[in-house]
Amino acid sequence: MLIRPLAATAALCLFAASATFAQAAEKPTDPQIAHIAYTAGEIDIEAAKLALKKTQNKDVRDFADDMVRDHEAVNKQALDLVKKLKVKPEDNATSKSLVASAKEERAKLAKLKGAAFDKAYIDNEVAYHKQVNGALETVLIPSASNAELKSLLETGLKVFQGHEQHAEHVAAALK
């Protein structure tokens, strides 16, 4: 029964990151926010690409295709914005933690096949999007100083809330 631990790993990682920010005396800077947001998108792209290699399920494949398309588009907008603003995204403890946890999660997912993979991947996507959306709402958007960055994060949040709903729909169909 790897499904619950797999979903919990991503959820705990982002929960810990948002809890750390909520408790910290200083809010994250715009360069740190940009790096965290970009990193979270890249993690989802990599997970989706793994799903596209492994799944035979049309609903899972369609969801993964959406993740690649949408997260690549938002990350491109983010890169364009940081170039325009001449801001260098700043690596930080949160983005490093996200990368480490994602690497571990992908390794677990890579060992699964068929319906077990599909369920674990989608359950992880539900948990991951809940945590990313929560971090966007409670930490990243309120902490962003630059209006254009804040606007991009708000637009991303709307897209990612749709991803969460889509993942929940697919998860319900897989049960």
Protein model, in words:
- With 175 residues, this protein is an all-alpha fold.
- It has a single domain (3-15, 29-174), classed as Up-down Bundle (Ferritin), CATH 1.20.1260.10.
- The protein is 86% helix and 0% strand.
- Helix 3 runs antiparallel to helix 6.
- The longest helix is centred in the C-terminal third of the chain and has 30 residues, at 114-143.
- The protein is elongated and about 45 Å long.
- The model is unreliable at 1-25 (pLDDT under 50).
What is the fold's blueprint, element by element?
Blueprint: H1 3-23, H2 30-54, H3 58-85, H4 93-110, H5 114-143, H6 147-174
Helix pairs in contact: 1-4, 1-5, 2-3, 2-4, 2-5, 3-6, 5-6
Compose a concise summary of this entry.
This protein is an all-alpha fold and 175 residues long.
- CATH class bucket: Mainly Alpha
Unreliable stretches covering 5 or more consecutive residues: 1-25
Mean pLDDT: 86
The CATH architecture: Up-down Bundle
Kindly identify the CATH topology: Ferritin
Characteristic key phrases:
0% strand; elongated; 175 residues; 86% helix; Ferritin
